């Protein structure tokens, strides 16, 4: 019997996401991913000052705040031939690393952990055994019996109050939860600690960009100035503050996040064979160490892997009109050239045309258009983007740092290399790259200090700042690796104004609907074959979707094979 | 769901705090809120008798920056707010269940606490094309909002999206993005402005409602006076440079390295009401001007269409009155008088406009 299951909203993500699946013999046999919200920011950008675009595009996402601002200033700089000073690049890198560390830790604890951690089970844990467990995997000092006992009492009071807040109606007691009670209690304690920690690390954004979320960026460099003899500028005190925050972040990642990740993963090794999906991976690369234009200097190398063949890394060119195109066969848009055509983003169009069911609706018409996301393809191929792609391209490019952490993780978990291509692999890759990023941040900081010592304090170039110096027409592409994957903006500037602006974001690659040939994108493909123990509580679906760290919002309703509503079992 | 809710006092006693500790907490809370010491008793009483109020947080057309800002709060800590102070029964960003179970959480609270819960809204409402531009669980967000607003005691509109439409309402506003107060009538709506609002301001508004059981005093745009009655310009530590005519001419120039005023590179501080200069961001770490970027005016309606960001405000009075230190010393009395008058003029222009509008209607993007 096939059941159509609708999950809308999918929570613990950014944005509005809906997934409809069919289940056959206890496994997902078909899947449709739909973005249910649109704002039309590409339309709004038309006619504006290109130097303002970073602020508009930054508001695309407040979770991965900074990433669109960074891609945007690079896009304008690419179009106008601006090369920013080395120290500005280093500060952008430090802000990037800050974002990556904060975002990945928040994803692991606050958006993903409840898929693996049964909060209610933590009530049954023995604080003494929890303390022993915590001390066996890490030297993190908050690990005493008393500490875990207090946390447990706090949860008990909370549960006894009868007001379960964000934990109400969770999938507690679901058979897919495998952690012992002690591991659950430890994870809950770290859930709370991570919530406190994440607000600290982002102070680096406030120091360099004035605030977080949505710190300030600037075409031509960064807005701050360095003056060691001035209280109103970046001086020794400010740099000491940044250094402390970076050091504390590294300790938290090494002593809390990674030990927890590996401990939890150890109980879910079967998820190393679930949720693989696509076999193609795309990475634009990021963290330049010799200027944005020297791609060979990137810490995250650029490249493509096809068919999971780690022996070859293919090249990607975002300016080639034949390589990257967006399709709309199943998206609520119109193209002048017709439904079946694909457009390179420089020639991209954003004309909204909703043809879905009138709300309120129970099911989407998946044969026709069913999402607000366009469908990007690289030379016609569906590509997965994100931490797993970065880890694979780094590994396949032969970068020692990547090989080292990948080998360590596979050995620690005692799983084969194939386990990388999975839900578990995606979640593990996110942690591993956080370790790399926390190390690189230290390098960037040291380089910045050493440049200042050598007398270079420039943070902005005036070259091409004034619109009067701009050519009549210019085109640019700005690329980055957002926490969720490959991100690029394309701009066409005419008569000092934005003539066209297109964004192809990570979740567009991963969460998009099928293309005109019926090929699935990453979310849909990864769900096929995922076991569903209880269609009333599709916890497994949520696990795989969350392993991508979606950047839209979603929900799920359950329907039977005739499309009629199936009531859910109340869990609390 | 809950039958009996525990009060803060009961929770505190259960946690092992003494009555004396509890009174100390109340005193700290009062101090944090800037109250007279005579108010301590009032705070204590409020905490003793109030249960954890149920709170629902809806998400419309937004980027989740308000949720992200909220979890940055340092006083109170967000974990303490969630576990001890409110019962956040629905928020798509943090809640454990998805789909039908998530909607159950929403409806459970709407039914059990009809007329009692506080509704927080992040995001604007797309009103064009029957609401197809934002659907949740197959329903248009506008319908979800009206359903939840009906039984709400009060509504907090988080950020510029819910207060004024923000970026998606910028010209040409393709989806008809509309702020909450334009759609929900007959309920008090607090506009906590900013893109996003400052974390401690968000927490401060919640703390005010919890402790005093009433709405904070609002300005004519529905914003809490405690945080939005001063211009960023009037609370800016770079203000003396403005008064002295000392300006950054281009980014990272010698004047920028001295922290001069950013007015000439586009600062919107003179027309922006927010707490940035006083409260600052991320537990007082910095704010945009302090880190060298002009204020873009993110707590004002229409700020996206008041650009470009790097062009300075036209004919702003009071510009460059005192060109050097000697003149400042020489004509201190006169100069100060002129400076004050100039600011009074601009403030009055703004106030006059608001007064002319009559209603407590914020300025809107009507395009």
Write up what this structure looks like.
- The complex is a heterodimer of chains A (572) and B (367).
- With 572 residues, chain A is of the alpha+beta class.
- Chain A is built from 15 helices and twelve strands.
- Chain A has helices at residues 41-45, 53-58, 67-80, 86-112, 127-137, 145-160, 181-201, 203-209, 236-266, 387-396, 400-413, 423-453, 506-511, 522-527, 539-547, and strands at residues 3-7, 17-24, 27-35, 281-283, 303-305, 324-327, 342-343, 375-378, 473-482, 485-494, 497-504, 556-558.
- Chain A has a four-stranded antiparallel sheet. In chain A, strands 7-6-8 form a three-stranded antiparallel sheet, with no helix packed on it. Chain A has a three-stranded antiparallel sheet with strand order 9-10-11.
- In chain A, strand 2 (17-24) and strand 3 (27-35) form a beta hairpin.
- The radius of gyration of chain A is 24 Å and the shape is globular.
- The two termini of chain A are 28 Å apart.
- In chain A, 62% of the residues are buried.
- Mean pLDDT of chain A is 93; it is low at 553-572.
- With 367 residues, chain B is α/β, with parallel strands linked by helices.
- Chain B has three domains: 1-50, no CATH class; 52-228, NADH:ubiquinone oxidoreductase-like, 20kDa subunit (Rossmann fold, 3-Layer(aba) Sandwich); 233-353, Cytochrome-c3 Hydrogenase, Chain A, domain 2 (Irregular).
- Chain B has helices at residues 8-14, 19-32, 40-49, 65-70, 78-85, 99-112, 141-150, 159-164, 199-212, 225-228, 239-243, 254-257, 276-279, 325-330, 332-357, and strands at residues 54-59, 87-91, 118-122, 125-126, 135-136, 139-140, 154-158, 177-178, 189-192.
- In chain B, strands 2-1-3-7-9 form a five-stranded parallel sheet, with helices on both faces. Chain B has a two-stranded antiparallel ribbon with strand order 4-8.
- In chain B, helix 2 crosses helix 3 (40-49).
- The radius of gyration of chain B is 22 Å and the shape is globular.
- Chains A and B meet through helix 1, helix 6, helix 7, helix 8 and strand 12 of A and helix 4, helix 5, strand 2, helix 6 and strand 5 of B.
């Amino acid at each position: 019997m096939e059941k159509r299951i609708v999950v809308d909203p999918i929570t613990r993500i950014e944005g509005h996401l809906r997934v409809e699946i069919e289940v056959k013999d206890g496994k997902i046999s078909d899947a449709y991913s739909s973005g249910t919200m649109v704002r039309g920011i590409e339309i709004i950008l038309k006619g504006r000052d290109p130097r303002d675009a970073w602020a508009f595009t930054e508001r695309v996402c407040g979770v991965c705040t900074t990433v669109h601002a960074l891609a945007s200033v690079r896009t304008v700089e690419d179009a106008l031939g601006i090369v920013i000073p080395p120290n500005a690049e280093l500060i952008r890198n430090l802000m990037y690393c800050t974002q990556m560390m904060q975002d990945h830790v928040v994803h692991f604890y606050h958006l993903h952990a409840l898929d693996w951690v049964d909060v209610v089970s933590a009530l049954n844990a023995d604080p003494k055994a929890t303390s022993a467990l915590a001390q066996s995997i890490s030297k993190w000092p908050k690990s005493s019996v008393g500490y875990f006992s207090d946390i447990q009492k706090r949860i008990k009071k909370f549960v006894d109050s009868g007001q379960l807040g964000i934990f109400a109606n969770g999938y507690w007691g679901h058979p897919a939860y495998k952690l012992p009670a002690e591991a659950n209690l430890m994870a809950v304690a770290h859930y709370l600690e991570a919530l406190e920690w994440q607000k600290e690390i982002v102070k680096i954004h406030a120091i360099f960009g004035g605030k977080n979320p949505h710190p300030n960026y600037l075409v031509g460099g960064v807005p701050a100035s360095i003056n060691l003899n001035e209280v109103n500028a970046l001086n020794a005190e400010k740099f000491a503050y940044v250094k402390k925050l970076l050091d504390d972040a590294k300790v938290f990642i090494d002593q809390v996040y990674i030990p927890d990740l590996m401990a939890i993963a150890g109980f879910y090794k079967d998820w190393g064979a679930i949720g693989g999906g696509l076999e193609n991976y795309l990475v634009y690369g990021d963290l330049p160490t010799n200027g944005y234009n020297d791609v060979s200097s990137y810490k995250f190398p650029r490249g493509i892997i096809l068919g999971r063949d780690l022996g070859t890394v293919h090249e990607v060119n975002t300016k080639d009109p034949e390589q990257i195109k967006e399709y709309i066969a199943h998206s609520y848009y119109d193209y002048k050239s017709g439904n079946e055509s694909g457009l390179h983003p420089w020639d991209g169009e954003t004309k909204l045309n909703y043809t879905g069911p009138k709300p309120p609706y129970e099911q989407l018409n998946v044969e026709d258009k069913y999402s607000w996301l366009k469908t990007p393809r690289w030379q016609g191929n569906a590509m997965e983007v994100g931490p797993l792609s970065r880890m694979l391209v780094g590994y396949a490019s032969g970068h020692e740092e990547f090989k080292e952490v990948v080998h360590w993780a596979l050995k620690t978990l005692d799983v084969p290399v194939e386990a990388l291509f999975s839900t578990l692999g995606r979640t593990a890759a996110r942690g591993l790259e956080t370790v790399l990023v926390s190390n690189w941040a230290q390098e960037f900081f040291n380089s910045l200090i050493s440049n200042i010592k050598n007398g270079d304090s420039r943070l902005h170039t005036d070259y091409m700042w004034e619109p009067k110096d701009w050519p009549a027409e210019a085109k640019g592409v700005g690329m980055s690796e957002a926490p969720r994957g490959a991100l690029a903006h394309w701009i066409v500037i005419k008569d000092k104004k934005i003539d066209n602006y297109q964004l192809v974001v990570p979740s567009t690659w991963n969460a998009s609907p099928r293309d005109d040939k019926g090929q699935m994108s990453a979310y849909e493909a990864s769900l096929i074959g995922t076991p569903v123990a209880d269609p009333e509580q599709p916890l497994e679906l949520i696990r795989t979707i969350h392993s991508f760290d979606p950047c839209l919002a979603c929900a799920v309703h359950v329907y039977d094979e005739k499309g009629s509503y199936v009531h859910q079992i109340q869990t609390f | 769901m809950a039958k009996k809710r525990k009060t803060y006092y009961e929770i505190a006693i259960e946690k092992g705090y003494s009555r004396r500790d509890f009174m100390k907490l109340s005193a700290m809370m009062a101090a944090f809120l800037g109250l007279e010491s005579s108010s301590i008793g009032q705070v204590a009483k409020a905490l003793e008798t109030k249960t954890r109020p149920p709170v629902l947080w809806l998400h419309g057309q937004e980027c989740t920056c308000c949720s992200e800002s909220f979890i940055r709060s340092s006083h109170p800590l967000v974990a303490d707010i969630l576990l001890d102070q409110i019962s956040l029964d629905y928020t798509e960003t943090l809640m454990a269940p998805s789909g039908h179970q998530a909607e159950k959480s929403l409806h459970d609270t709407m039914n059990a606490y009809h007329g009692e819960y506080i509704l927080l809204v992040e995001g604007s409402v797309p009103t064009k094309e029957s609401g197809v531009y934002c659907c949740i669980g197959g329903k248009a967000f506008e319908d979800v909002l009206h359903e939840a607003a009906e039984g709400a005691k009060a509504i907090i509109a988080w950020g510029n999206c819910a207060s004024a439409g923000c970026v998606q309402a910028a010209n040409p506003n393709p989806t008809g993005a509309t702020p909450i107060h334009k759609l929900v009538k007959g309920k008090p709506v607090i506009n906590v402005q900013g893109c996003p609002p400052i974390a401690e301001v968000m927490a401060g508004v919640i703390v005010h409602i919890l402790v005093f059981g009433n709405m904070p005093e609002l300005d004519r745009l529905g914003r809490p006076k405690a945080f939005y009655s001063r211009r960023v310009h009037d609370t800016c530590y770079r203000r003396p440079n403005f008064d002295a005519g000392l300006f950054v001419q281009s980014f990272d120039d010698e004047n920028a390295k001295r922290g001069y005023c950013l007015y000439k590179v586009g600062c919107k501080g003179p027309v922006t009401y927010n707490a940035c200069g006083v409260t600052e961001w991320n537990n007082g770490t910095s704010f945009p001007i302090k880190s060298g970027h002009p204020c873009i005016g993110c707590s004002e309606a229409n700020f996206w269409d008041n650009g470009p960001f790097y062009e300075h405000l036209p004919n702003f009075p009071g510009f460059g009155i005192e060109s050097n230190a000697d003149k400042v010393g020489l004509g201190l009395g006169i100069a100060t008088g002129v400076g004050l008058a100039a600011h009074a003029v601009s403030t009055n222009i703004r106030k006059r406009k608001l007064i002319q509008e009559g209603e407590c209607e914020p300025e809107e993007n009507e395009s």
